[in-house]
Amino acid sequence: MMWYEILGLIIGGTLALLGVGMPVGFALAAVTLLGILFTQGWGNPFMQYVASVKSSLSVFTLLPVPLFVLMGEILWHSQIAGRALKALDMLLGRLPGRLSLLAIASGTLFSTLSGSTMANTALLGRLLVPELKARGYSGVMSMGPIMASGALAMLIPPSALAVIFASVAKVSIGKLLLALIVPGLLLAVLYAVFVVGVALRYPKLAPAYDIEKVPFSVTAKALLIDVVPLLFVIITVVGVIFQGVATPTEAAAVGALASLILAAAYGGLSVLKVSKALMDTLRITVMMLTILASAIAFSQLLAFTGASRGLLEYVLSGDQTALIFIAMTMLMILVLGMFLEQIAIMMITLPILMPIVAALSIDPLWFSVLMLINLEIALMTPPFGMLLFVMGSVTDDQTSMSMIWRAALPYVLINVAVIALIMFVPAIATLLPNAALG
Q1: Is the pTM of this model over 0.70?
Q2: How many domains does the chain have?
Q3: Fewest CB atoms less than 10 Å from the CB: which of 139, 312, 432, 438?
Q4: How far, in Å, are 101, 145, 228, 402, 435 from residue 190 at the CA level?
Q5: What is the distance between the alpha carbons of residues 425 and 211, in angstroms, rounded to a whole number?
Q6: What is the span of the domain harbouring residue 108?
Q7: Interior/surface letters 245-279, b for 16+ CB within 10 angstroms, e for the rest
Q8: pLDDT tens digits, one per residue of 142-189
């Protein structure tokens, strides 16, 4: 069989299994095992598969995943997030689109704590959607900012998905986490600029209302007590990586310990809450590592059958420039994001794309940032964007899915614009990690 026939069978089989609802990790494992059976036979090749799965998980670089997840789960279950939300509410005063800005500010802050886009969106949706609707805010100014800022948890460290991405793409975890900071904050700023602009131009979409004036001393006290300690945890985790004092694994451990101390200081630590945090951490980590192990074996199957090598030779045989390749890849990921979730896209495409990136002498760190922002868009694109369904679950029955799609659209376009900007100004993504870690 020709390489493209083999590639078509492997990718097609995987997409078919995903289409009937099989979990990503099991779909990749099933295709890999069938591929091994038909190309190498029974017996020793399967033992090699088991050894490959074991070795892919027995690496030091994956330790940040459960630690980052644990850090976020402790802070969520200790209800520290709700206190920070109230403090930020006091800070915003009477700014145009005040509640929309609150959603963006809170979502950005919580993104640095949880690393979970769905948890971030669900929490903000439950807390803010009723108030936003009661104040007459439109979908673009209520549901849109919540989904957009909730999705930032995929970019702004600590991001467990970024660690998984770096492990599969074989790029530095520390550098990738640092590279995502500026693009993530840039997106948050552009969301806020858009909200203020719309509120000023179309006041009916975000009606102004009278609020009780809070003395500055009260606001400052709330920020000092409920927000600054969270910022300290964030700065500690990112700062030790930035200064080269600790590896991402050590920084994640520091973050988990700091979250425990913070939860205890706020009186939100109990045996029940710690137990829930540990169980949720175990569930999420097992899911991620199962997918990762299956994906690595999947990439080895692509290499053994010659499918990835054939695609690489085909791409390099033409007059393909790096910019054209990246533009085509971004378009492909954008389309895939309408039908698949992030981990599935990541695991199917990276084993094929990364060798081409190396062959075209493209900076893998820069490419990884572009990919992750594009994968973030997949959270908000119909028909299967995960955050669309999360938002649907926290709104009333009168909110249709088409209304949620329209609310997300402007923020999707902002993400596309940032991808284009980083394509032409790579320093947005690469300056910080290169300055910090060389």
Answers
A1: yes
A2: 1
A3: 438
A4: 11, 11, 24, 24, 25
A5: 42
A6: 3-437
A7: ebbbbebbbbbbbbbbebbeebebbeeebbeebee
A8: 999 999 998 898 888 777 788 888 888 889 888 898 899 999 999 999
